[in-house]
Amino acid sequence: MTNREFPSRRAAIFADVPDEKWNDWRWQLSRRLNSVEEIEKVLPLTGSEKKALSTPGLFRVDVTPYFISLIDPDDPNDPIRRQIIPTADEILPFTGMMEDSLAEDRHSPVPGLVHRYPDRVLMLVTTQCASYCRYCTRSRIVGDPAANFSRSEFEAQVAYLEKTPQVRDVLLSGGDPLTIAPRQLEEILSRLRAIPHIEIIRIGSRVPVFMPQRVTEELTDMLQKYHPLWMNIHVNHPNEISRELAEACDRLTRAGIPLGNQSVLLAGVNDCAHIQRQLVQDLVRIRVRPYYLYQCDLVEGAGHFRTPVGKGVEIIEALRGHTSGYSVPTYVVDAPGGGGKIPVMPNYLISQSDHKVVLRNYEGYVTAYEEPITYQPHNPSTCPFCQNKKEEPGQRGIFGMLDGDEMFIKPEDFDLLHNRGGGQHRLRSDEQKWKPLGIGDGE
Ligand SMILES: *Cc1c(COP(=O)(O)O)cnc(C)c1O
Questions:
Q1: Which of 27, 59, 129, 272 is geometrically suited to a Cys-Cys bond with 176, CB 3.0 to 4.6 A?
Q2: How close is the Cα of 224 to the center of ligand 1, in Å?
Q3: pLDDT digits over 338-395, tens only?
Q4: 119 and 32 part of one domain
Protein backbone atom coordinates (compact mmCIF):
# COMPACT_ATOMS: atom_id res chain seq x y z
CA MET A 1 0.00 0.00 0.00
CA THR A 2 1.36 3.43 -0.86
CA ASN A 3 0.82 6.61 1.08
CA ARG A 4 -2.15 8.67 0.04
CA GLU A 5 -0.97 11.79 -1.79
CA PHE A 6 -1.78 15.23 -0.48
CA PRO A 7 -3.93 17.14 -3.00
CA SER A 8 -3.20 20.43 -4.74
CA ARG A 9 -6.26 22.52 -5.60
CA ARG A 10 -7.26 25.71 -7.35
CA ALA A 11 -10.79 27.08 -7.45
CA ALA A 12 -12.23 27.29 -10.98
CA ILE A 13 -11.97 31.10 -11.13
CA PHE A 14 -8.19 30.89 -10.67
CA ALA A 15 -7.67 28.23 -13.37
CA ASP A 16 -6.17 30.72 -15.81
CA VAL A 17 -3.80 32.43 -13.35
CA PRO A 18 -0.24 31.75 -14.57
CA ASP A 19 1.80 29.54 -12.20
CA GLU A 20 4.39 32.29 -11.59
CA LYS A 21 1.63 34.44 -10.15
CA TRP A 22 -0.15 31.68 -8.22
CA ASN A 23 3.14 30.64 -6.62
CA ASP A 24 4.08 34.21 -5.70
CA TRP A 25 3.11 35.07 -2.13
CA ARG A 26 2.82 38.76 -2.98
CA TRP A 27 0.18 37.90 -5.58
CA GLN A 28 -1.64 35.69 -3.05
CA LEU A 29 -1.63 38.51 -0.47
CA SER A 30 -2.79 41.20 -2.91
CA ARG A 31 -5.60 39.04 -4.35
CA ARG A 32 -7.20 38.13 -1.04
CA LEU A 33 -10.99 37.88 -1.08
CA ASN A 34 -13.13 39.73 1.45
CA SER A 35 -16.44 40.92 -0.02
CA VAL A 36 -19.70 39.15 -0.82
CA GLU A 37 -19.09 39.80 -4.54
CA GLU A 38 -15.57 38.33 -4.59
CA ILE A 39 -16.27 35.34 -2.37
CA GLU A 40 -19.44 34.50 -4.26
CA LYS A 41 -17.38 33.91 -7.38
CA VAL A 42 -15.80 30.96 -5.57
CA LEU A 43 -18.65 29.65 -3.42
CA PRO A 44 -22.39 30.33 -3.30
CA LEU A 45 -22.94 32.13 0.03
CA THR A 46 -25.70 31.28 2.48
CA GLY A 47 -28.04 33.94 3.90
CA SER A 48 -26.25 33.79 7.24
CA GLU A 49 -22.85 34.33 5.60
CA LYS A 50 -24.14 37.25 3.53
CA LYS A 51 -25.66 38.83 6.60
CA ALA A 52 -22.37 38.53 8.50
CA LEU A 53 -20.29 39.86 5.60
CA SER A 54 -22.44 42.98 5.45
CA THR A 55 -22.44 43.62 9.22
CA PRO A 56 -20.56 46.82 10.09
CA GLY A 57 -17.75 46.34 12.61
CA LEU A 58 -17.36 42.62 11.94
CA PHE A 59 -13.91 41.18 12.68
CA ARG A 60 -11.87 41.49 9.50
CA VAL A 61 -12.43 39.02 6.67
CA ASP A 62 -9.68 38.14 4.19
CA VAL A 63 -8.84 34.82 2.53
CA THR A 64 -5.99 33.99 0.19
CA PRO A 65 -6.93 32.50 -3.20
CA TYR A 66 -4.87 29.42 -2.25
CA PHE A 67 -6.74 28.78 1.01
CA ILE A 68 -10.25 29.44 -0.32
CA SER A 69 -9.50 26.91 -3.06
CA LEU A 70 -9.32 24.15 -0.43
CA ILE A 71 -13.04 24.64 0.36
CA ASP A 72 -15.67 22.38 -1.25
CA PRO A 73 -17.98 25.09 -2.68
CA ASP A 74 -21.02 22.80 -2.50
CA ASP A 75 -20.74 22.15 1.23
CA PRO A 76 -21.99 24.99 3.45
CA ASN A 77 -20.51 23.11 6.45
CA ASP A 78 -17.09 22.62 4.91
CA PRO A 79 -14.57 22.63 7.81
CA ILE A 80 -12.25 25.14 6.13
CA ARG A 81 -15.14 27.39 5.16
CA ARG A 82 -16.33 27.49 8.77
CA GLN A 83 -12.90 28.69 9.95
CA ILE A 84 -12.66 31.57 7.53
CA ILE A 85 -16.07 32.67 6.20
CA PRO A 86 -18.16 34.43 8.88
CA THR A 87 -21.75 33.51 9.72
CA ALA A 88 -24.38 35.50 11.59
CA ASP A 89 -23.58 33.37 14.68
CA GLU A 90 -20.53 35.59 15.18
CA ILE A 91 -22.72 38.45 16.21
CA LEU A 92 -24.30 36.51 19.11
CA PRO A 93 -23.14 37.24 22.66
CA PHE A 94 -22.79 34.38 25.18
CA THR A 95 -22.31 33.91 28.94
CA GLY A 96 -18.67 34.39 29.89
CA MET A 97 -17.79 36.26 26.71
CA MET A 98 -14.81 38.63 26.97
CA GLU A 99 -12.82 40.85 24.69
CA ASP A 100 -9.41 39.94 26.17
CA SER A 101 -10.29 36.58 27.72
CA LEU A 102 -6.68 35.66 28.59
CA ALA A 103 -6.04 39.06 30.24
CA GLU A 104 -2.99 39.48 28.01
CA ASP A 105 -3.12 43.23 28.23
CA ARG A 106 -2.78 43.02 32.02
CA HIS A 107 0.35 40.88 31.66
CA SER A 108 2.02 43.29 29.25
CA PRO A 109 4.93 45.24 30.74
CA VAL A 110 5.20 47.11 27.42
CA PRO A 111 2.69 47.12 24.54
CA GLY A 112 2.79 43.86 22.57
CA LEU A 113 4.91 41.93 25.06
CA VAL A 114 3.05 39.41 27.23
CA HIS A 115 5.14 38.19 30.16
CA ARG A 116 3.02 35.58 31.92
CA TYR A 117 5.48 32.75 32.60
CA PRO A 118 8.80 32.92 34.47
CA ASP A 119 11.25 32.23 31.63
CA ARG A 120 9.48 33.09 28.38
CA VAL A 121 7.53 35.87 26.73
CA LEU A 122 5.06 36.25 23.93
CA MET A 123 6.08 39.07 21.60
CA LEU A 124 3.40 40.44 19.29
CA VAL A 125 5.18 41.84 16.25
CA THR A 126 2.27 42.70 13.94
CA THR A 127 -1.52 42.87 13.91
CA GLN A 128 -1.73 41.50 10.35
CA CYS A 129 -2.40 37.95 9.15
CA ALA A 130 -2.50 36.28 5.73
CA SER A 131 -6.17 35.34 6.36
CA TYR A 132 -8.34 35.80 9.44
CA CYS A 133 -9.58 32.91 11.61
CA ARG A 134 -13.15 33.57 12.75
CA TYR A 135 -12.37 32.37 16.30
CA CYS A 136 -9.26 34.57 16.71
CA THR A 137 -8.36 34.94 20.38
CA ARG A 138 -6.77 38.34 19.66
CA SER A 139 -9.54 39.78 17.52
CA ARG A 140 -9.42 42.82 19.84
CA ILE A 141 -6.15 43.91 18.20
CA VAL A 142 -5.68 41.77 15.09
CA GLY A 143 -6.73 42.79 11.59
CA ASP A 144 -7.02 46.54 11.97
CA PRO A 145 -5.00 47.85 9.01
CA ALA A 146 -4.54 51.22 10.74
CA ALA A 147 -3.17 49.81 14.01
CA ASN A 148 0.22 48.18 14.08
CA PHE A 149 3.16 48.11 16.46
CA SER A 150 5.40 51.12 16.01
CA ARG A 151 9.16 51.39 15.94
CA SER A 152 9.18 52.91 19.42
CA GLU A 153 7.06 50.05 20.76
CA PHE A 154 9.50 47.56 19.23
CA GLU A 155 12.40 49.40 20.89
CA ALA A 156 10.54 49.27 24.21
CA GLN A 157 10.00 45.51 23.80
CA VAL A 158 13.70 44.97 23.10
CA ALA A 159 14.70 47.20 26.02
CA TYR A 160 12.48 45.18 28.38
CA LEU A 161 13.99 41.91 27.15
CA GLU A 162 17.54 43.24 27.55
CA LYS A 163 16.93 44.09 31.19
CA THR A 164 15.01 40.89 32.01
CA PRO A 165 17.60 38.10 32.15
CA GLN A 166 15.20 35.38 33.24
CA VAL A 167 13.67 35.41 29.75
CA ARG A 168 15.36 32.62 27.82
CA ASP A 169 12.61 31.94 25.24
CA VAL A 170 10.87 34.52 23.03
CA LEU A 171 7.78 33.52 21.13
CA LEU A 172 7.04 35.73 18.13
CA SER A 173 3.37 35.98 17.32
CA GLY A 174 0.78 38.60 16.45
CA GLY A 175 -0.88 38.71 14.03
CA ASP A 176 1.44 36.60 11.99
CA PRO A 177 5.20 37.28 12.04
CA LEU A 178 5.64 35.76 8.57
CA THR A 179 3.45 38.46 7.00
CA ILE A 180 5.86 41.28 7.79
CA ALA A 181 8.45 42.50 5.32
CA PRO A 182 11.39 40.06 5.16
CA ARG A 183 13.94 42.71 6.09
CA GLN A 184 11.89 43.77 9.11
CA LEU A 185 11.54 40.18 10.28
CA GLU A 186 15.28 39.70 9.96
CA GLU A 187 15.86 42.81 12.02
CA ILE A 188 13.67 41.46 14.82
CA LEU A 189 15.48 38.12 14.78
CA SER A 190 18.94 39.66 14.77
CA ARG A 191 18.08 42.09 17.56
CA LEU A 192 16.81 39.19 19.69
CA ARG A 193 19.88 37.08 18.91
CA ALA A 194 22.07 39.94 20.12
CA ILE A 195 20.63 39.49 23.63
CA PRO A 196 22.87 36.88 25.30
CA HIS A 197 20.30 35.38 27.70
CA ILE A 198 17.78 34.62 24.96
CA GLU A 199 18.39 30.96 24.23
CA ILE A 200 15.58 30.05 21.86
CA ILE A 201 13.31 31.95 19.52
CA ARG A 202 9.98 30.56 18.37
CA ILE A 203 7.67 31.72 15.62
CA GLY A 204 3.92 31.04 15.75
CA SER A 205 2.57 31.31 12.22
CA ARG A 206 -0.36 30.21 10.10
CA VAL A 207 1.32 31.50 6.93
CA PRO A 208 2.48 28.01 5.84
CA VAL A 209 -1.20 26.99 5.98
CA PHE A 210 -2.79 30.10 4.45
CA MET A 211 -0.03 30.88 1.98
CA PRO A 212 2.65 28.17 1.70
CA GLN A 213 4.13 30.13 -1.23
CA ARG A 214 5.62 32.48 1.37
CA VAL A 215 7.96 29.76 2.60
CA THR A 216 10.61 30.33 -0.05
CA GLU A 217 14.20 29.09 -0.01
CA GLU A 218 15.16 32.72 0.51
CA LEU A 219 13.05 32.85 3.67
CA THR A 220 14.37 29.57 5.10
CA ASP A 221 17.97 30.66 4.28
CA MET A 222 17.36 33.80 6.30
CA LEU A 223 15.62 32.03 9.21
CA GLN A 224 18.33 29.43 9.65
CA LYS A 225 20.87 32.10 10.48
CA TYR A 226 19.07 32.62 13.79
CA HIS A 227 19.10 29.11 15.25
CA PRO A 228 18.00 27.66 17.62
CA LEU A 229 14.68 28.62 16.03
CA TRP A 230 11.45 26.63 16.45
CA MET A 231 8.12 27.08 14.71
CA ASN A 232 4.52 26.23 15.48
CA ILE A 233 2.02 26.20 12.65
CA HIS A 234 -1.77 26.03 12.99
CA VAL A 235 -3.71 23.30 11.19
CA ASN A 236 -7.17 22.29 12.41
CA HIS A 237 -8.45 19.80 9.87
CA PRO A 238 -6.86 17.19 7.56
CA ASN A 239 -8.29 19.02 4.50
CA GLU A 240 -5.75 21.82 5.16
CA ILE A 241 -2.85 19.46 4.48
CA SER A 242 -2.12 20.01 0.80
CA ARG A 243 0.86 19.20 -1.38
CA GLU A 244 1.90 22.87 -1.07
CA LEU A 245 1.79 22.78 2.75
CA ALA A 246 3.75 19.50 2.79
CA GLU A 247 6.41 21.08 0.57
CA ALA A 248 6.60 24.26 2.68
CA CYS A 249 7.03 22.17 5.85
CA ASP A 250 9.73 20.16 4.12
CA ARG A 251 11.65 23.36 3.33
CA LEU A 252 11.35 24.50 6.95
CA THR A 253 12.45 21.21 8.50
CA ARG A 254 15.36 20.93 6.02
CA ALA A 255 16.46 24.33 7.31
CA GLY A 256 16.65 22.72 10.75
CA ILE A 257 13.48 24.30 12.16
CA PRO A 258 11.53 21.79 14.26
CA LEU A 259 7.81 22.14 13.51
CA GLY A 260 4.92 21.82 15.93
CA ASN A 261 1.21 22.30 15.42
CA GLN A 262 -1.29 24.17 17.55
CA SER A 263 -4.95 23.38 16.79
CA VAL A 264 -8.08 24.82 18.27
CA LEU A 265 -10.95 22.47 19.09
CA LEU A 266 -13.86 23.88 17.07
CA ALA A 267 -17.48 22.76 16.98
CA GLY A 268 -18.47 21.78 13.45
CA VAL A 269 -14.84 21.74 12.28
CA ASN A 270 -12.79 19.16 14.17
CA ASP A 271 -14.87 18.11 17.21
CA CYS A 272 -14.56 14.45 16.26
CA ALA A 273 -12.00 11.90 17.44
CA HIS A 274 -11.76 10.38 13.96
CA ILE A 275 -11.05 13.73 12.28
CA GLN A 276 -8.44 14.45 14.94
CA ARG A 277 -6.77 11.08 14.48
CA GLN A 278 -6.48 11.65 10.73
CA LEU A 279 -5.20 15.18 11.36
CA VAL A 280 -2.42 14.21 13.76
CA GLN A 281 -1.33 11.26 11.64
CA ASP A 282 -1.15 13.42 8.51
CA LEU A 283 0.81 16.04 10.47
CA VAL A 284 3.53 13.61 11.54
CA ARG A 285 3.77 12.43 7.92
CA ILE A 286 4.84 15.96 7.00
CA ARG A 287 7.14 16.03 10.08
CA VAL A 288 4.99 18.35 12.14
CA ARG A 289 4.62 17.31 15.77
CA PRO A 290 1.17 18.03 17.27
CA TYR A 291 1.95 20.33 20.20
CA TYR A 292 -1.24 21.77 21.68
CA LEU A 293 -4.95 21.25 21.12
CA TYR A 294 -6.65 24.32 22.60
CA GLN A 295 -10.08 24.59 24.09
CA CYS A 296 -11.73 27.52 22.26
CA ASP A 297 -11.36 30.74 24.26
CA LEU A 298 -14.25 32.78 25.66
CA VAL A 299 -13.68 35.41 23.03
CA GLU A 300 -16.29 37.61 21.37
CA GLY A 301 -17.51 36.18 18.10
CA ALA A 302 -16.42 32.61 18.84
CA GLY A 303 -19.30 31.36 20.98
CA HIS A 304 -20.65 29.04 18.28
CA PHE A 305 -17.26 27.31 17.98
CA ARG A 306 -17.10 26.29 21.63
CA THR A 307 -17.46 22.65 22.72
CA PRO A 308 -17.71 21.18 26.20
CA VAL A 309 -14.26 20.47 27.71
CA GLY A 310 -15.25 16.80 27.79
CA LYS A 311 -14.94 16.74 23.99
CA GLY A 312 -11.24 17.46 24.30
CA VAL A 313 -10.81 14.77 26.94
CA GLU A 314 -12.60 12.31 24.65
CA ILE A 315 -10.26 13.20 21.78
CA ILE A 316 -7.16 12.61 23.90
CA GLU A 317 -8.68 9.30 25.05
CA ALA A 318 -9.02 8.37 21.36
CA LEU A 319 -5.42 9.28 20.57
CA ARG A 320 -3.18 8.26 23.47
CA GLY A 321 -2.14 4.64 22.98
CA HIS A 322 -4.22 4.30 19.82
CA THR A 323 -1.66 6.06 17.64
CA SER A 324 2.02 7.11 17.69
CA GLY A 325 2.93 9.00 20.82
CA TYR A 326 4.48 11.64 18.55
CA SER A 327 1.00 12.36 17.21
CA VAL A 328 -0.66 13.14 20.53
CA PRO A 329 -0.92 16.85 21.41
CA THR A 330 -1.46 18.20 24.91
CA TYR A 331 -5.05 19.36 25.29
CA VAL A 332 -5.12 22.69 27.17
CA VAL A 333 -7.61 25.20 28.47
CA ASP A 334 -6.08 28.67 28.35
CA ALA A 335 -7.33 29.99 31.70
CA PRO A 336 -9.88 32.80 31.45
CA GLY A 337 -8.50 35.76 33.34
CA GLY A 338 -4.90 35.00 32.48
CA GLY A 339 -3.83 31.87 34.38
CA GLY A 340 -2.04 30.41 31.37
CA LYS A 341 -2.46 27.02 29.74
CA ILE A 342 -3.89 24.25 31.87
CA PRO A 343 -3.52 20.68 30.56
CA VAL A 344 -6.58 18.44 30.81
CA MET A 345 -6.59 14.72 30.11
CA PRO A 346 -8.24 11.45 31.05
CA ASN A 347 -7.22 9.87 34.37
CA TYR A 348 -4.84 6.95 34.08
CA LEU A 349 -4.05 6.69 37.80
CA ILE A 350 -6.81 4.59 39.37
CA SER A 351 -5.64 4.00 42.93
CA GLN A 352 -2.63 4.01 45.24
CA SER A 353 -1.32 2.53 48.46
CA ASP A 354 1.99 3.08 50.30
CA HIS A 355 3.78 0.71 47.93
CA LYS A 356 1.63 0.33 44.82
CA VAL A 357 -0.02 2.35 42.12
CA VAL A 358 -2.90 0.99 40.12
CA LEU A 359 -2.96 2.29 36.56
CA ARG A 360 -5.10 1.72 33.51
CA ASN A 361 -4.06 1.86 29.86
CA TYR A 362 -5.95 3.06 26.77
CA GLU A 363 -7.61 -0.37 26.37
CA GLY A 364 -8.92 -0.40 29.91
CA TYR A 365 -6.28 -2.95 31.00
CA VAL A 366 -5.62 -2.38 34.70
CA THR A 367 -2.17 -2.98 36.16
CA ALA A 368 -0.42 -2.67 39.54
CA TYR A 369 3.06 -1.16 39.66
CA GLU A 370 5.01 -2.22 42.73
CA GLU A 371 6.95 0.77 44.09
CA PRO A 372 10.39 0.52 45.71
CA ILE A 373 10.43 0.45 49.50
CA THR A 374 14.16 1.18 49.64
CA TYR A 375 14.21 4.39 47.60
CA GLN A 376 17.06 6.69 48.63
CA PRO A 377 15.57 10.15 48.23
CA HIS A 378 17.44 12.57 46.03
CA ASN A 379 19.72 14.77 48.13
CA PRO A 380 19.32 18.45 47.22
CA SER A 381 22.25 19.51 49.40
CA THR A 382 24.74 17.68 47.19
CA CYS A 383 22.97 18.35 43.89
CA PRO A 384 24.46 21.33 42.02
CA PHE A 385 21.23 21.83 40.07
CA CYS A 386 19.14 22.05 43.25
CA GLN A 387 21.65 24.44 44.76
CA ASN A 388 21.50 26.67 41.72
CA LYS A 389 17.74 26.95 41.27
CA LYS A 390 16.57 30.34 40.09
CA GLU A 391 12.85 30.71 40.30
CA GLU A 392 10.80 33.77 41.07
CA PRO A 393 9.32 33.27 44.56
CA GLY A 394 5.76 34.07 43.48
CA GLN A 395 5.79 31.55 40.63
CA ARG A 396 7.02 28.42 42.38
CA GLY A 397 3.43 27.21 42.49
CA ILE A 398 2.42 23.69 43.43
CA PHE A 399 5.97 22.54 42.76
CA GLY A 400 7.12 24.96 45.46
CA MET A 401 4.99 22.98 47.93
CA LEU A 402 6.76 19.76 46.93
CA ASP A 403 10.26 21.06 46.43
CA GLY A 404 10.34 23.76 49.08
CA ASP A 405 8.65 24.18 52.43
CA GLU A 406 5.53 26.09 51.42
CA MET A 407 2.58 24.44 53.14
CA PHE A 408 -0.36 26.08 51.47
CA ILE A 409 -1.53 28.44 48.77
CA LYS A 410 -4.65 30.38 49.63
CA PRO A 411 -6.97 32.87 47.98
CA GLU A 412 -6.32 36.49 48.79
CA ASP A 413 -9.23 37.00 51.21
CA PHE A 414 -8.96 33.61 52.89
CA ASP A 415 -7.58 34.87 56.20
CA LEU A 416 -9.95 37.82 56.45
CA LEU A 417 -12.88 35.47 56.06
CA HIS A 418 -11.57 32.83 58.45
CA ASN A 419 -10.51 35.30 61.10
CA ARG A 420 -14.14 35.70 62.24
CA GLY A 421 -13.38 34.91 65.89
CA GLY A 422 -10.77 37.65 66.11
CA GLY A 423 -8.83 36.48 69.20
CA GLN A 424 -6.24 33.80 69.32
CA HIS A 425 -5.73 33.08 65.61
CA ARG A 426 -5.11 36.68 64.68
CA LEU A 427 -2.42 37.17 62.05
CA ARG A 428 0.97 38.39 63.08
CA SER A 429 1.26 40.98 60.39
CA ASP A 430 -0.70 42.28 57.48
CA GLU A 431 1.98 41.16 55.11
CA GLN A 432 1.66 37.57 56.20
CA LYS A 433 -1.87 37.42 54.91
CA TRP A 434 -0.94 36.72 51.33
CA LYS A 435 2.34 34.93 51.74
CA PRO A 436 2.49 31.14 51.76
CA LEU A 437 3.84 30.14 55.19
CA GLY A 438 6.76 27.78 55.65
CA ILE A 439 7.14 25.07 58.27
CA GLY A 440 7.34 26.59 61.71
CA ASP A 441 5.79 29.86 60.61
CA GLY A 442 2.38 29.00 62.06
CA GLU A 443 1.09 30.25 65.39
C1 LIG B 1 1.31 30.04 25.17
C2 LIG B 1 2.10 31.10 25.76
C3 LIG B 1 3.48 30.94 25.95
C4 LIG B 1 4.23 29.70 25.57
O5 LIG B 1 3.79 28.59 26.31
P6 LIG B 1 4.46 27.18 26.14
O7 LIG B 1 3.65 26.28 27.00
O8 LIG B 1 5.88 27.31 26.58
O9 LIG B 1 4.39 26.83 24.67
C10 LIG B 1 4.16 31.98 26.53
N11 LIG B 1 3.54 33.12 26.91
C12 LIG B 1 2.22 33.28 26.75
C13 LIG B 1 1.59 34.55 27.21
C14 LIG B 1 1.45 32.29 26.16
O15 LIG B 1 0.14 32.47 26.00
A1: 129
A2: 23
A3: 899 999 999 999 999 999 999 999 999 999 999 999 999 999 999 999 998 877 777 7
A4: yes
Q: Are residues 316 and 418 in the same domain?
A: no
Catalytic residues: 116-117, 120, 129, 133, 136, 138, 297, 334, 341
Any ligand 1 atom below 6 A from CB of 116: yes
Residues 424 and 314 in one domain: no
CA of 61 to the centre of ligand 1 (A): 26
In a domain, 363, yes or no: no
- Would residue 212 count as lying in a domain? yes
Atom of ligand 1 nearest to the CA of 332: 7
Three-state SS for the chain is CCCCCCCCCCCHHHCCCCHHHHCCHHHHHHCCECCHHHHHCCCCCCHHHHHHHCCCCCCCCCECHHHHCCCCCCCCCCHHHHHHCCCHHHHCCCCCCECCCCCCHHHCCECCEECCCCCEEEEECCCCCCCCCCCCCCCCCCCCCCCCCCHHHHHHHHHHHHCCCCCCEEEEECCCHHHCCHHHHHHHHHHHHCCCCCCEEEEECCHHHHCHHHCCHHHHHHHHHHCCEEEEECCCCHHHCCHHHHHHHHHHHHCCCCEEEEEEECCCCCCCHHHHHHHHHHHHHCCEEEEEEEECCCECCCHHHCCCHHHHHHHHHHHECCECHHHCCEEEEEECCCCEEEECCCCCEEEECCCEEEEECCCCCEEEEECCCCCCCCCHHHCHHHHCCCCCHHHCHHHHHHHCCCCCCCCCCHHHHHCCCCCCCCCCCCHHHCCCCCCCCCC
At which of 329, 344, 359 does a domain end?
Answer: 344
CA–centroid distance, residue 141 to ligand 1 (Å): 18
Domain membership of residue 414 as a residue range: 389-436
Residues of the chain with pLDDT under 70: 1-2, 421-443
